[in-house]
């Protein structure tokens, strides 16, 4: 019995170590893991099956990646390579829905930064954002004036948070806010793991005239620590075609208008 308990403890520690390494790197080649952890390929396969069952990792074409969830914020480098084509389509669709907006708030995160890249140059725009990546993408665009919110910078997203960001944002009334989330729960709540981030997002929802949600299909059906809005607060929720039509209908029943691109 003692040997079994030690083996189980060792397996748990090894699986936790795999997840820790994934958080640092974003992805790992399965073939490298037996040597890295000094175990057999079959042992690694058992570990990965268990991690997949727990929805902590996903495996495809010999590579494992973190499963993004409310409890885990993946590295920026991973977000830039995970479902990238889907995120580009979503960003382009969002940029095409400005309508008459001349002032907009852009959220932190990789997908809103892609929206920044996709904004048109056919009109003057004023963009308010807490996102350093978005600022860097917009700073040299002659038709776009950028207002950067100050505050504490989060390493995970390079976004500004805390009192300075929310207080400044409260002074604006943007025509449109484009926001993301770490999870959209089955009961129609938008959530994020960090209360400071939630405060900025909630303020943007409150002060903006219109609101668009952008997020890949993996965001739906997940719940994080802090809620900041309801799906019915958004004019449109733009996601990828990988979100099934049946799931989209379930969210529509809660007041969401889902557009899959």
List the helices and strands and how they pair.
Layout lengths: L1 H24 L1 E3 L3 H5 L3 H13 L3 E4 L2 E4 L9 H4 L4 H12 L7 E4 L3 H9 L6 E5 L2 H7 L5 E5 L3 E3 L4 E3 L1 H7 L6 E4 L3 E2 L4 E4 L2 H13 L2 E5 L11 E5 L5 E4 L5 H8 L5 E3 L1
Parallel strand pairs: 4-5, 4-9, 5-6, 9-12, 12-14, 14-15
Antiparallel strand pairs: 1-3, 2-3, 7-8, 10-11, 11-13
Helix pairs in contact: 5-6, 6-7
Keywords:
261 residues; alpha/beta; Arc Repressor Mutant, subunit A; Rossmann fold; 2 domains; seven-stranded parallel beta sheet; 10 helices; 39% helix; disordered N terminus; WH-like_DNA-bd_sf; DNA binding; transcription regulation; WH_DNA-bd_sf
Brief sketch in words of this structure:
The chain has 261 residues and is α/β, with parallel strands linked by helices.
How does this structure look, described?
It is a single chain. With 261 residues, this protein is of the alpha/beta class. The chain folds into two domains: 2-67, Arc Repressor Mutant, subunit A (Orthogonal Bundle); 78-260, Rossmann fold (3-Layer(aba) Sandwich). Helix content is 39%, strand content 22%. The protein contains ten helices and 15 strands. The chain has helices spanning 2-25, 33-37, 41-53, 76-79, 84-95, 110-118, 132-138, 163-169, 195-207, 245-252; strands at residues 27-29, 57-60, 63-66, 103-106, 125-129, 144-148, 152-154, 159-161, 176-179, 183-184, 189-192, 210-214, 226-230, 236-239, 258-260. The strands form four sheets. The chain has a seven-stranded parallel beta sheet, sandwiched between helices. A three-stranded antiparallel beta sheet has the order 1-3-2. The longest helix has 24 residues, at 2-25. It is globular, with a radius of gyration of 20 Å. It starts with a helix and ends with a strand. The model is unreliable at 1-7 (pLDDT under 50).
